[in-house]
Automatic annotation (TrEMBL):
Pfam family, one: UPF0758_N
Entry coiled-coil feature ranges: none
GO molecular function terms attached to this record: metal ion binding; metallopeptidase activity
GO biological process: proteolysis
Family listed: Belongs to the UPF0758 family.
Organism of provenance: Propionispira arboris
Span of domain MPN: 108-230
InterPro entries (alphabetical): MPN, RadC_JAB, UPF0758, UPF0758_CS, UPF0758_N
KW Manganese (keyword) present: no
Keywords associated with the record: Hydrolase, Metal-binding, Metalloprotease, Protease, Zinc
Top-level taxon in the UniProt lineage: Bacteria
Protein's name in the database: DNA repair protein RadC
């Protein structure tokens, strides 16, 4: 039998909902925020304990690990059914969209960090490798962000035709290449550099310069331009 007290037995000031109302959402830890979304626990476990068990099961990557869980994986924790699982997943997606929308308010790309802030919320937790192209106008406003391929990056998959077709369609003046490393480590591979140089050469011919190639990791990034790996 779990000896952790039920939420109703906690002092009022320590109950997640009351604590949020009194001190703000930022004052709650991860388990307390999850507990508010889950609402109820089980006969044996408080909702706080259920939330802590969920976080503990995926403690290797911390809170980030729950972003890509399916409702079925959530349901492996006793006390979390389908309704609670989809509630948590909906809250995560809202948070991610809010982060993306905030990034979109900065429409002018002036440095690699601007690019990273724009795409990091979308791609840092992806379990598949995405190669995307950011299309810019003459003033470096973002015209569009287009997914070119999903899967391991290679010259055979990322073909210049697919990249520059979108650039021509949007009348882009320049482009930025972006892809993520699901491992979380943004260190570029030889293939990354090879593909980048091939696309840069195509950009010279097309008169649509490739300004940079950004590799996204888990809250980390590498700019091949900054690293001096491309001209």
């Amino acid at each position: 039998m779990n000896n952790m007290p039920m939420v109703k037995d906690l002092p009022v000031a320590e109950r997640p909902r009351e604590k949020l109302l009194a001190k703000g959402a930022q004052s709650l830890n991860n388990a307390e925020l999850l507990a508010i979304l889950l609402r109820t626990g089980t006969k044996e476990d408080s909702v706080l304990h259920v939330a802590e068990k969920l976080l503990a099961q995926y403690k290797e990557r911390g809170l980030a690990s729950i972003v890509n869980l399916s409702p079925h994986e959530f349901s492996k924790i006793k006390g979390i059914g389908t309704v609670k699982a989809v509630t948590v997943l909906a809250a995560i997606e809202l948070g991610r969209r809010l982060a993306e929308q905030t990034a979109e308010l900065r429409t002018v790309i002036e440095k690699p960090r601007d690019i990273v802030d724009y795409v990091m919320p979308r791609f840092r937790y992806e379990t598949k490798e995405y190669f995307i192209v950011m299309l810019l106008n003459t003033k470096h406003h973002v015209l569009a962000v287009h997914t070119v391929s999903i899967g391991s990056l290679s010259a055979s998959i990322v073909h210049p035709r697919e990249v520059f077709r979108e650039a021509m369609y949007h009348a882009a003046a320049a482009i930025v290449l972006i892809h993520n490393h699901p491992s979380g480590d943004p260190s570029p591979s030889k293939e990354d550099i090879c593909v980048t140089r091939k696309l840069i050469q195509t950009g010279v011919i097309m008169d649509i310069p490739v300004l940079d190639h950004i590799i996204i990791g888990d809250n980390k990034y590498v700019s091949l331009k900054e690293k001096g790996m491309i001209e």
